[in-house]
Automatic annotation (TrEMBL):
GO terms for molecular function: UDP-glucosyltransferase activity. Its EC number is 2.4.1.-. The keyword Glycosyltransferase applies. Belongs to the UDP-glycosyltransferase family. Keywords: Glycosyltransferase, Transferase. The keyword Transferase applies. SUPFAM superfamilies: UDP-Glycosyltransferase/glycogen phosphorylase. It is an enzyme of class 2 (transferase). It comes from the Eukaryota. Pfam families: UDPGT (PF00201). This is Glycosyltransferase. It comes from Oryza meyeriana var. granulata.
Length: 480
């Protein structure tokens, strides 16, 4: 079939800042490739407003910041009795949004492809119903994808649950051994409904025509090879994977608007002397933990920028918006005065991309959200890995044991990471031989990221391949 001259690519996003940021970057890339793009975002049903409260406003902020990208708000689905489990509630919302998505797709004159966030697996049904080719945009590491695609096979050929296996190493194709306790909580218990739902999703990913991954080949060569060789899904073909990253907000775009005070502060610090601490868009640590971090930073003697958020009142609802933190109450007495000359506290939000790219930044204490990892790798900043929720423990294994771009904050899986550990790891990365070795490796990661995105780099070529595949795709709306 002839390629449509004006095809639209519909990106179906899930709410959540860490999902929206890379989706918007993909939209920009597609626009540069000459395609019309619409980001179709769900509207949470009123009954679930709690869970989505912070990310719904993020969509508005992103739409305002990116006027060249078109956002379409799908109407809210009916959801009379939301699941009590917040994660299942989110997945249900995405599933119930399939009919409005289908109606939207049918309203468009020509759609070249439907690109789905990794939580929008049920939307494959809308693609099937319209004959529009579906792709996933995987905004986590290729290593996560390799492990998750393997899980349906793993579960059908083994017994027992990860939750009962302690740190026993799991051996999956394409990734280093993963301690069972580092698997995401959603798959820890085989008897759990969430686990069944996620396995169903992983089992459907191969239905897509291809998977775009926000990574670059050098960073995850082993996982990418395993995916390409079909080693992760033994019983059916794995769709082609396109490593098109790292797609992160460009520094010059991040720098639009007023310059954040922490950047002027960084200007005055020596090269590579500052430790940056930021735990993603939700960053939820307890008050006791904040105090331990403060003590560790103080005794390390190093400079720091620390993004401090109020602890969640209810840790199970860490995603709810929180008030500005009261630093004096939260941090140890006198800490702010004693560290005034070498520390900068930022409330709630820092310009992370710019901070990481600043010459004065020497290390990054991160929760291992994948955007954060890519931003650090592209900036050449070693990571101190402190995973907290979602797939971050698995990312930590990949970053430390696979990519060798960071060290682990021990105690991340216990009640508290102690001040002594914070001090020890900060010193290790900033002062010791191990830190120097990490920096050499990070310099390589940074160069390879730039090379992947250059004109003939692996990510540019993969994106060109994807565009070529789109032209082959059948763009008629109602083939079935
Ligand atoms: N971010 C930021 N400033 C902050 C906190 C987060 O700019 O104070 C950005 C960060 O640069 C990244 C995103 O928010 O692009 C967080 O995504 P990630 O995947 O790292 O973690 P998540 O928020 O999804 O857990």
């Amino acid at each position: 079939m002839e390629a449509d001259p004006n095809p639209t690519v519909v990106l179906h996003a899930c709410l959540g800042v860490g999902h929206l940021i890379p989706m918007v970057e993909l939209a920009k890339l597609l626009r540069r490739g000459g395609l019309a793009v619409v980001i179709a975002v769900p509207t949470p049903p009123a009954s679930t407003a709690d869970f989505f409260s912070s990310s719904a406003s993020a969509v508005d902020r992103m739409a305002a910041a990116n006027p060249s990208i078109s956002f379409h708000h799908l109407p809210p689905p009916e959801y009379p009795e939301p699941d009590p489990d917040a994660f299942l509630q989110m997945l249900d919302t995405m599933r119930l949004t399939v009919p409005p998505l289908l109606a939207f797709l049918r309203s468009l004159p020509s759609v070249a492809a439907l690109v789905l966030d990794l939580f929008c697996v049920d939307a494959l049904d809308a693609a099937t119903a319209t004959g529009i080719p579906a792709y996933f945009y995987y905004t986590s590491p290729a290593g996560d994808l390799a492990a998750f695609l393997h899980l349906p096979h793993y579960f059908s050929t083994t017994r027992g649950s990860f939750k009962d296996m302690g740190k026993a190493p799991l051996r999956f194709p394409g990734v280093p051994p993963i301690p069972a306790s580092d698997m995401p909580h959603t798959v820890l218990d085989r008897a759990d409904r969430t686990c069944a739902t996620r396995l169903g999703h992983y089992g459907r990913i191969p239905e897509a025509r291809g998977v775009l991954i926000n990574t670059y080949e050098w960073l995850e060569a082993r996982a990418v090879t395993a995916l390409r060789q079909g080693a992760c899904v033994p019983d059916r073909p794995t769709p082609p994977v396109y490593c098109i990253g790292p797609l992160i907000v460009k520094e010059e775009e991040a720098a639009k608007g007023e310059r954040h005070a922490c950047l002027s502060w960084l200007d005055a610090q020596p090269e590579r002397s500052v430790v940056f601490l930021c735990f993603g868009s939700l960053g939820a640590v307890s008050e006791e933990q904040l105090k331990e971090i403060a003590r560790g930073l103080e005794s390390s003697g190093h400079r720091f920028i620390w993004v401090v958020r109020s602890p969640p009142q209810n840790p199970a609802k860490f995603y709810l918006p929180r008030p500005e933190p009261n630093m004096r109450k939260l941090l140890p007495e006198g800490f702010m005065e004693r560290t005034r000359d070498r520390g900068m506290l930022v409330t709630s939000w820092a310009p992370q991309v710019e901070v990481l790219r600043h010459a004065a930044t020497g290390a990054f204490v991160t929760h291992c959200g994948w955007n954060s990892v890519l931003e650090a790798a592209s900036a050449g900043v070693p990571m101190l890995c402190w995973p907290q929720y979602a797939e971050q423990r698995l990312n930590k294994v990949l970053v430390v044991d696979g990519m060798q771009l960071g060290v682990v904050m021990d105690g991340y899986d216990e009640e508290l990471v102690k001040a002594e550990e914070v001090e020890r790891k900060v010193r290790l990365v900033m002062e010791l031989e191990e830190g120097k070795k990490l920096r050499v490796r990070l310099t390589m990661a940074k160069e390879m990221a730039a090379e992947a995105l250059a004109d003939s780099g692996s990510s540019s070529l993969a994106f060109a391949e994807f565009l070529k595949d789109l032209n082959i795709g059948n763009t008629s709306k109602d083939q079935a």
